[in-house]
Each structure stands twice: as structure tokens, then as C-alpha cells.
Specification:
Elements: H1 2-11, H2 27-48, H3 70-81, H4 84-88, H5 90-96, H6 103-128, H7 143-173, H8 207-212, H9 214-223, H10 230-240, H11 254-270, H12 275-285, H13 288-301, H14 306-314, H15 324-337, H16 344-349, H17 358-392, H18 404-415, H19 421-455, H20 458-462, H21 464-479, H22 487-497, H23 501-531, H24 537-560, E1 566-567, E2 570-571, H25 574-588, H26 590-601, H27 607-615, H28 645-670
Antiparallel strand pairs: 1-2
Subcellular location: Cell membrane
Family: Belongs to the sodium:neurotransmitter symporter (SNF) (TC 2.A.22) family. SLC6A9 subfamily.
Catalytic activity: glycine(out) + chloride(out) + 2 Na(+)(out) = glycine(in) + chloride(in) + 2 Na(+)(in)
Length: 689
């Protein structure tokens, strides 16, 4: 123990070291030393990104940097893929589309579409070590796909952080003895309000009395013909103070605006050093949600009626398997929940080391973890909702909801039925915050990396923090309109249109470009050079045929099943729907616009020659580091190799310079004359004169 203390004192910074005294022989002294040592260790890791006493690992790519280890990348990818949709969308889709029967098409779509696309994007970014813009050196004409990914990530990043800020607000409001959405005796409540617990006048405010009046409150609710829950009125009339129309912005909700500032500050601070700092943060943000889910699950299954909720969630209705809508929902959920075509997967993989095995551990395990989390979250959600339905004596379907309605209305109301409800509320909203932050980290890093890689100067690489701060400030300002009284309308409009069918089109074009324009044989060789083995036959078939077909099916299904967006009883006006379609098209339109621009700037006498040149891989396409440019990317591989020509020309110029210098030396030696061989006539052009 004494040697360990000396080692800690030597490793930690001098200001925090503690001189050895007899105090260390006592339990109190040992606790004090341990406390200060851990505090200093935390500060050192936060500042330097390394643990004292451990050898500092050198980045393979010193210019861009790499993940500290593979675990950081895996946890970041898990945090990116596992988001709010796993909690508030999947359970609802599952019970609506046949319960346990929905699992069959869901996992089929995971195997044939989700995992292959996930592996494709990871290998794409890792091979080039570039973000979602730089990777399109593979075929410069398709760089518009990268710009489309940036536009989508911008839209999502703006409204996603607003959802996180609302979760922050509910988290802060849960720090009380009694949740503010428990009763109907508040200034914002209406006469239609009816709680699931007894009125505040009947109770003395203690949690024991709240629990004892559950049955009375439930009976009162059932007797009413029209019921508005306290949590719904708290959400509409207090948190949002929602206006009557999307065009009626009203004033900014200052508490929400303040929480939005807090949310962006947290995101910026966690990304202040790029993947070096976010890679350390995800050890907590990507793992603690599972701790909270487990706590809520254990608490939920011990409640009365929880089994009914879980049965409602899982009971298979096999006849729905024959419904095309069920398969469409399964494919869409897999596609959107994994974060394909957002640009985040390409960006995160670009910080991997070149020979990292992104197939076995990364692609398969992360994809399966994402889907398993969705299923697990369903147990947590429906155990609590089953308990709520049991107390209200109503079917589970009447209390089930999805999206913001589940996160900020249905589930918070169910939590009021539990003893020590503020504790469970704190845990639930803290989990939502962490789930949202994991995705938001990658969205912001995607934009920053794309900008830094595109400009590529030494100054911007050294000052990447300034770019991160600028993007965060801009994201905060663009999110301010969503904190007004009409903000929820715009948030749902962006959620439904900004990242809907546009993602499907982007992903489909990406597959076509890599497999058919660049060439599947070329890409398979690239993956083999990177991993040491070619992609399995299954993935080759999926990339070329199955996945594009499924993506096309998702697109067709999305168009056929399209319905104008509504929010409860509110119907969006046509002008707002036009804005929604404009947001959706703004990302897709980048692809043809940039393609036409690239073709017009390409050399060639005819349109066909220009098109062919624009589709060819850029000479700089390939591994980022010279040490990895082997085989057909080797500098002297072939005189006809496009990638080798610039390097070959440089080598030829060096050889020519050597020949010129050699000839000059020979000429100088001939001009040296004299009887003793020491007379230098370099300054005399006629030595015989």
C-alpha cells in the first residue's frame, strides 16, 4: 500500500500531491488520499486524454488524430446509433404492427439491409480516413451526396438538441418532492383536467398519501367522458404554452431557451478536443443509459399490471406479417435507427486506424446492440404503461403513445403513480439526455470534420476548436425559433420531412456510386487491402443487389404511405407542408447540382468525355498515409496508374536534377588548371590569356 501511495504521488501533478504523514495510516487519511488522487486523475485525463503512468499512444494519423482505442469508437458508435428513437418509436411500432410478429421482419431487415449498409459506411470512411465530403474522391461527380449528408445532419442537429433541452428542463423540474404534473390544482390546468391520483386538497402532500389515493383518482378519471391528464396540460400549457397555429410564433419560452444553451454548452465542451475528448465522455454517456434502463425495468416488472403491458407489447399477431405496411415499418425503423446516410458513420470510422477490423466487432456488434436496445426498451416502457392501464382500468392501447407524446406526457404521468416518483423521473429524463447527447456528439462532429477536411489547411486543423464553437453557436441560434410557442409545430415538421425520404435517396445513390460507378471489384480489393481479407460473399451480394432493392422498397413504401403531418387535432396548413418538402429536397438537390457543376468543369470535347472524367477516381483517392498506399496505390506501381503519375513525375524530376548537378561538377573539374593543379580559373573564362 505504501509503494502504491508513493507511485501515485509521483504520477500526479505537484499541486495535488499530499506529503506523507501519519494520517495515511488511518482509514480517514486513506479515504482523503484516494479522494484527492481520483480527483487529480480525473482532471489530468480530461486535460490530456491519457492516464498517468500509462504509455502515451501515438496517433497513426498525426495530422487528423485517431481514437484512443477501439473501445472509444465502439462506444461512440453505439451512442450514435442508440438514440431517442429506440425508446419512443420502436416499442410503439412493435405493438402497432403485430407485437412479437413484428420481430420477424425487423430482424430480417437488420440482416439484409441494416448490417450491410452499416459495414459499407464504416469501411468507406475508414479506408480514406476522411469525412463525409472528402471520401467522394472515389468519384468526384457524386460529392453532392456528401453535401446532402451535411444538410441532413444540420437539420437533425438543430431540432434534436431542442428535444434534449426539453429533457433537461423536465430533469430540472423533477428535482422536487412532488412532480409538478401530478395534480390538476395548478394555474395552468383546465376544468377538463383529471389526474390519476387524488386531488391535492385530499392529500397532505406526502408521498404515502399520494399512493393511498391511486384507486380513487383512477375511478374519478373513468367516470369522466372527456379527460385531459395533468401531464398533458403541463406539457401544452406550461412547458410549451403552445400557440394555436404554426405561424403564430409568440414569445420565446425563456426556460426552454436557457436549457437549449445548457445543452449546446455540454455538447461543445464534450467535443472541445474532437474525438480525443468525446472518446472519453462516451465511457459514461453510452453505458449509463443501460444502467437506468435496467433500474426502470426491475422496478417496472414488479408493479401490478406490468405483465399485461408486456403481453400487449409482445403477443404476436401473425396475420400482420402478410401486411406490406409491417415490412415497410420494419425496414424504415432499421434504416433510420442505425443512422445510415447521415454522414456520422463515415465520420466516426475515419478516425480509426487503417487496419482496424471494422467488420467483426464494429459493424455486427454495434448493429445488434442497437436493435437489442430497442427491444429491451420496449419492456421498460410497456411494463410501466401496463401498470398505468391497470390502475385506470383501461386497455393498454389507450395509454400507449410514441414520440414526444410518450416521453413528455404518457410516461411522466405513469411515473406519478410510483412511490418516490421524483427519483424515477430524474432517472428517466437523465437517460433521455444521455441517449440524445450520444447522437448529438456525432452530428456535430460530422459537420466539423467535413469543414476541416474540405479546407485542410494547417491553421484550421490546429484551430479545430474554433470551428466546433462556431458550429455550436450557429446551431444554437438556428434552434431559437423552436423554443417559441409555435416551436413544437416546427420541430415535428423538421422531424417528419428533413430526414425522411431524402435519407433513402442518399443511401441508394451511395450504393450505386460505390458498387457500379467506382466498381465493386475495386472496392472489394480496397476492403481486402485494409482488413487483410475480402468482404464475405454475403456482404458482396447485399451491397450489389439486396440492399439497393430494399432501399428502393423503403422509398416506394414511404411515398405510398405518405400522409400530411398532424399534431393531435391540429392540421398543418399547406404552406407549412411546402416548407417541409423544401427541406427534404434541399439535401437531395445537392446531388444533381454538384454533378452538373463538376461535369461542366471537367476537361473533354464532348459531354460523354466530361462525364467519364468526372466519374473517375481522383488521383488522391486511397489510403491517407503513404505507408498504406501499397499495391495499385503504390507510387511506382505502374506508369499508367493515374494515382502514381504525380509521384512518378516527382521522382523523374529528382533524377534529372541529380544528372544536372553531376554534369556541372564535371565541367568545373575541367576548368581547374595550373602547374601544381591548384589554379582555379572559374572567374577567368580564358585561362591561356
Amino acid at each position: 500500500m505504501t509503494g502504491l501511495m508513493k507511485e501515485q504521488q509521483h504520477t500526479l501533478s505537484p499541486p495535488m500531491s499530499i506529503p506523507p504523514t501519519p494520517l495515511y495510516t488511518t482509514a480517514t487519511g486513506m479515504f482523503r488520499q484516494s479522494h484527492e488522487s481520483h480527483l487529480c486523475l480525473f482532471l489530468f485525463v480530461l486535460k490530456n486524454g491519457a492516464v498517468p503512468g500509462e504509455p502515451v499512444k501515438k496517433d497513426e494519423n498525426s495530422r487528423r488524430g485517431n481514437w484512443g482505442n477501439q473501445i472509444e469508437f465502439v462506444l461512440t458508435s453505439v451512442g450514435y446509433a442508440v438514440g431517442l428513437g429506440n425508446v419512443w418509436r420502436f416499442p410503439y411500432l412493435c405493438y402497432r404492427n403485430g407485437g412479437g410478429a413484428f420481430m420477424l421482419p425487423y430482424f430480417i431487415m437488420l440482416v439484409f439491409c441494416g448490417i450491410p449498409l452499416f459495414f459499407l459506411e464504416l469501411s468507406f470512411g475508414q479506408f480514406a480516413s476522411l469525412g463525409c465530403l472528402g471520401v467522394w474522391k472515389i468519384s468526384p461527380m457524386f460529392k453532392g451526396v456528401g453535401y446532402g449528408m451535411m444538410v441532413v445532419s444540420t437539420y437533425i442537429g438543430i431540432y434534436y438538441n431542442v428535444v434534449i433541452c426539453i429533457a433537461f428542463y423536465y430533469f430540472f423540474m423533477s428535482m422536487t418532492n412532488l412532480l409538478p404534473w401530478t395534480y390538476c390544482n395548478n394555474p395552468w390546468n383546465t376544468p377538463d383536467c383529471s389526474g390519476v391520483v387524488g386531488s391535492g386538497a385530499q392529500l397532505n402532500g406526502s408521498l404515502v398519501n399520494v399512493t393511498s389515493n391511486l384507486i380513487a383518482g383512477a375511478s374519478e378519471m373513468v367516470n369522466r367522458t372527456k379527460r385531459t391528464s395533468p401531464s398533458e396540460e403541463y406539457w401544452k400549457h406550461y412547458v410549451l404554452n403552445i400557440s394555436d397555429d404554426i405561424g403564430n410564433f409568440g414569445e420565446v419560452r425563456l426556460p426552454i431557451l436557457g436549457c437549449l444553451a445548457v445543452s449546446w454548452c455540454v455538447v461543445f465542451l464534450c467535443l472541445i478536443r474532437g474525438v480525443k475528448s468525446s472518446g472519453k465522455v462516451v465511457y459514461f454517456t453510452a453505458t449509463f443509459p443501460y444502467v437506468v434502463l435496467t433500474i426502470l425495468f426491475i422496478r417496472g416488472i414488479t408493479l401490478d399490471g406490468a405483465i399485461n403491458g408486456i403481453k400487449y407489447y409482445l403477443t404476436p399477431q401473425w396475420q400482420k406479417v402478410l401486411d406490406a405496411k409491417v415490412w415497410g415499418d420494419a425496414a424504415s425503423q432499421i434504416f433510420y435507427s442505425l443512422g445510415c446516410a447521415w454522414g456520422g458513420l463515415i465520420t466516426m470510422a475515419s478516425y480509426n486506424k487503417f487496419h482496424n477490423n471494422c467488420f467483426r466487432l464494429d459493424s455486427i456488434i454495434i448493429s445488434i446492440t442497437n436493435c437489442a436496445t430497442s427491444v429491451y426498451a420496449g419492456f421498460v416502457i410497456f411494463s410501466i404503461l401496463g401498470f398505468m392501464a391497470h390502475h385506470l382500468n383501461v386497455p393498454v392501447s389507450e395509454v400507449a403513445d410514441h414520440g414526444p407524446g410518450l416521453a413528455f406526457v404518457a410516461y411522466p404521468e405513469a411515473l406519478t403513480l410510483l412511490p418516490i416518483s421524483p427519483l424515477w423521473s430524474l432517472l428517466f429524463f437523465f437517460m433521455l439526455i444521455l441517449l440524445g447527447l450520444g447522437t448529438q456528439f456525432c452530428l456535430l462532429e460530422t459537420l466539423v470534420t467535413a469543414i476541416v477536411d474540405e479546407i485542410g489547411t494547417d491553421w484550421i486543423i490546429r484551430n479545430k476548436t474554433i470551428i466546433t464553437l462556431s458550429v455550436a453557436v450557429l446551431g444554437f441560434l438556428l434552434g431559437v425559433p423552436l423554443t417559441t410557442r409555435a416551436g413544437i409545430y416546427w420541430l415535428l415538421l423538421m422531424d417528419n420531412y428533413a430526414a425522411s425520404f431524402s435519407l433513402v435517396i442518399i443511401s441508394c445513390i451511395m450504393c450505386i456510386c460505390i458498387m457500379y460507378v467506382y466498381g465493386h471489384r475495386n472496392y472489394f480489393k480496397d476492403v481486402e487491402m485494409m482488413l487483410g481479407f475480402p468482404p464475405p460473399l454475403f456482404f458482396k451480394v447485399c451491397w450489389r443487389f439486396i440492399s439497393p432493392v430494399i432501399i428502393s422498397f423503403i422509398l416506394i413504401f414511404t411515398v405510398i404511405q405518405y400522409k400530411p403531418i398532424t399534431y393531435n387535432d391540429y392540421i398543418y396548413p399547406r404552406w407549412s407542408l411546402a416548407i417541409g418538402f423544401a427541406m427534404a429536397l434541399s439535401s437531395v438537390i445537392c446531388i444533381p447540382i454538384y454533378a452538373l457543376y463538376k461535369i461542366s468543369r471537367s476537361p473533354g470535347a464532348t459531354f460523354r468525355e466530361r462525364l467519364k472524367f468526372a466519374c473517375q477516381a481522383h488521383p488522391k483517392w486511397g489510403p491517407a498515409l503513404q505507408e498504406h498506399r501499397t499495391g495499385r496505390y503504390a507510387p511506382m506501381a505502374s506508369e499508367d496508374t493515374v494515382e502514381a503519375r504525380p509521384l512518378k513525375e516527382k521522382e523523374e524530376q529528382k533524377e534529372e536534377q541529380k544528372e544536372v548537378e553531376k554534369e556541372r561538377k564535371e565541367e568545373i573539374s575541367l576548368t581547374i588548371q595550373g602547374s601544381n593543379g591548384s589554379t582555379n580559373t572559374h572567374n577567368n573564362p580564358n585561362p591561356s590569356a
